[in-house]
Amino acid sequence: MKKNLLTLFLFIISYSGYSQIQYENGYFINNSGNKIECLIKNIDWRNSPKKITYKLSNNDTNQEIGIESIKEFSINNISKYIRATVLIDRSSSNVNKLSKIRKAVFKEEVLFLKVLIEGQSNLYQYTDQILNRFFYKKNNEDIKQLIFKSYLTEDGKISKNERFKQQLWVNLKCENFKMSQLNKLEYKENSLINYFKKYSDCHNTEISFQNKKSKKDLFNLTIRPRINSISLDITPEYSGTSYSRVEFDKKTNFGFGIEAEFILPFNKNKWSITIEPTYQNYKSSSESKSQFISGGYLNSEVEYTSIEMPLSIRHYFFLNNNSKIYINGSFVIDFVLDNSITFNRADGSILNNYDINSNPNLAFGIGYKHNDKYSFEFRITNSRNIMNDYVYWNSEYKTTSLIFGYSFF
């Protein structure tokens, strides 16, 4: 079954990866200064791109063109990038790799800069993995980086070079600007955009372009009832025991979860992180033969109730504006509420009783969502050892679930 399921997953990923490609109206300006109207593949870049894929019409074949051939490109007048030769400081912000030099160390590079705002002065952004740098341009001057750098002092403490505040105070200020306001300014997109807006307003200059972020909700809260199919096998880990392998009856029951989903604001909202507290209950019994026990039979009972806490990474594949398929991988932490595994003799007397203490396990699911409201998911888990405290026992607790969802927030 798992092999067939994996084949299905790979097929859907391949199909969805093809069908979700969306080209949107835009343009690029080549090195000759010609503006080419076209359809550009909108990846909603998390990192500043080095090339784009475009088509001249819907029926045309796709083509790639790199930074060396483009001066500027834009999609739907929502996002816009320009090519610029700039001096950039790539000093790491990783605590383990901080420089001991306060001063920015510049290197000349040719980059695509994301246009955040165009007005009396322009604000740009460059992103590469965890590197985030902002640039500005005043009138016809060269584009310059706004300087911010974390570094280590001589006594090993972390300090910050916030020279960008001085740059803005000297080069972009108005009579009603106060230094106390500038001191509160953060080296973050929204904070800097607000400053550049106020600077344009001060000079009675209209904003000619501003990058528009997606207005999609970045948080979902979903109720998730489910039908679970649960199995449990227990096996002794050493020879000579009076017990044999116990296979409990497979049970179908109901569970209930509430999922909080945090959409990551890049790559067209295709990635998210979820946490889902889930109530589950399993109660079953088994009868097995044992030549070592009076009466020849061993009656086994299990009752197991817990709150599972899957922490998941999810990826969406968009089919159209209303429908999407998703896959997610989960790390499942289990909090046991009520539990017991009991072995009884044929006459009903208790032979042994064990408490349940479970290990985390993994889960994998594939689902469908419609209108960002209704969803269903098929999920399987790998085996969980619920007799973690007993070295002479091994257990395999497995769950297959059909999960239904309704997002109310």
How would you describe what is shown here?
The protein has 409 residues and is mainly beta. The protein is built from four helices and 24 strands. It has helices spanning 2-19, 163-171, 179-183, 189-202, and strands at residues 23-30, 35-41, 51-55, 63-66, 70-75, 79-89, 106-118, 121-128, 131-138, 144-146, 149-152, 158-161, 209-210, 219-236, 246-247, 251-263, 271-275, 278-289, 297-318, 323-344, 350-354, 361-370, 374-381, 393-407. β1 (23-30) and β2 (35-41) form a beta hairpin. The longest helix has 18 residues, at 2-19. The model is unreliable at 12-21 (pLDDT under 50).
Computed structural class? mainly beta
Count the beta strands: 24
Radius of gyration from CA coordinates: 30 Å
Average pLDDT confidence is: 87
Which blocks of ≥5 consecutive residues have pLDDT under 50? 12-21
Oligomeric nature of the chains:
single chain
H/E element sequence? HEEEEEEEEEEEEHHHEEEEEEEEEEEE
Fraction of residues in H or I helices: 10-25%
Residue share in β-strands:
over 45%
Report on the biggest sheet.
11 strands, antiparallel
Count of DSSP H/I helices? 4
